[in-house]
Amino acid sequence: TMDGVSFLRNNDRKFDLILVDFPFPEGQELAKLYSREFYVLVKGALAENALVLVDLPLYPGSDGKLSRESRTIVKTMDAAGFKNRLLMG
C-alpha cells in the first residue's frame, strides 16, 4: 500500500474502475484524499467510459440521506469535473 495521491501523481496507466474507500480525514495527511486535486487525479487515471466507485457513509437510521461530509465529497467531485453519478443508499 502507498499514499493514494502520490500513486496517482506518478501513474501513467488508465483504469476501467477505481474504487475509493477510505476513512474520514483525521488530520492533514488524510485530508488530501478529500481534495479537488485528488479527484482530478482520479479522473485523469480513468479510461474512456470507466467508473469510479466512492464509498459515502450515510447517517445512521436516516433513510438513505447522505452525511454532511459525504455531501462535501460529492461537491468536491463535481468541482473536479465529474458529471454523471448514481448515489445509492
Q: What are the defining features of this structure?
A:
89 residues, alpha+beta, two-stranded parallel ribbon, 2 strands
Which percent range describes the beta-strand content?
15-25%
Specify Rg, calculated over alpha carbons: 13 Å
Determine the structural class based on helices, strands and strand pairing: alpha+beta
Strand order of the largest sheet: 1-2
Structural notes for this entry:
The protein is of the alpha+beta class and 89 residues long. It is 35% helix and 17% strand. It is built from four helices and two strands. The chain has helices spanning 4-9, 28-31, 36-44, 68-79; strands at residues 15-20, 46-54. The protein has a two-stranded parallel ribbon. It starts with a helix and ends in a 10-residue tail after the last helix. The mean pLDDT is 82.
Helices and strands, with pairings:
Blueprint: H1 4-9, E1 15-20, H2 28-31, H3 36-44, E2 46-54, H4 68-79
Parallel strand pairs: 1-2
At a glance:
By secondary structure, this protein is α+β, with helices and mostly antiparallel strands. It is built from four helices and two strands, in the order αβααβα.
